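Please predict the structure of the following assembly.
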Amino acid sequence: MEIQILFFGVLAEVTQTSFKHYRGVTSFGDLKMRVADDFPEIAHYNFRIAVNNELVNEDPVLNDGDEVAYMPPFAGG
Amino acid sequence: MIESGSRGWKEHKNPNFSPHLEYKIDTEMLRKILVNGPITQENISSFLASIYENTGTGGHSVFIGQVRADIKGANRVKAIEYSSYEKMAETEAGKIRESILAEFNDVKSVEILHSVGIVKAGEVSLFVLVSAVHRHHAISACSKVVEMIKATLPVWKKEIFEDNSTMWKENSLA
C-alpha cells in the first residue's frame, strides 16, 4: 500500500522534510522501520504518531492512502 | 450550530451570523480556529461584539494568550513561530468544543482562535471566549478549554531570539 508520512515541529527541522511517500508498505511496523532507516535522527526526539488525524498508541492496521504524522510534544497556546 | 432552548440564543442559528465572517471569506471555514499571524484587535473586537447579539447568556469568560519576551541568559525572545497539523488541529478543536458543551450544560458557545506563523512579543496568539448562562460555568469551562488546547492541539512553537537563534518549546502540563 501507499502511505504518506508527515513530520512536524522539530522533526521537520532535523529531517529537513515535511512529507514523504512510501510505496509497498506491508504494515505499520514495516513503515516505522523504513522511516527509522531513512531518518535515523528522529530517534533522538520524543514523538507521537497519528494516523489520519487520530493519535495511535498501539500499532494500528494501515490502509492504502493513509496519512501517518510524526508529532513532537504539543506546544499550543 | 449550537442547540439551545433559550430564545435569545436562537439568533445564533442564523447561518449568516458569525464573527468569523469578519476575517474569513470562505463559509466552509466558518468554525476554523487557525489564523495566519497574530490575532488582531479587530479579530477580538468582532468576537466581543457578538456578545451583544445574545440575550440568553449571562456570563462570558475570555482568555488571551500573549507572546512573552522571555529572557534566556543574554538573549530575549522577540517572536514565536507557530506551526500546526492543520487538519488535526481543526478536528481536535471541534472535539474540545463538543466535550465542553457536553460537560457544562450552562455553556452555550466556545470560540477559539490560535495563530500559526510568526507572532511577535507583545502580540496575541490565542483567544478563547466561552459564553454561558451563568458565570461559574463560563469561568470553569474557559479554564478547561485552555488546558485542553495545551494538551491536545497539534501545534508547535519555536522561540526566535533577538540574535535570531531559535529554540523549540514544549508545554508543561500541570
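DSSP finds two helices and five strands in chain A. The first helix of chain A runs from residue 10 to 15.
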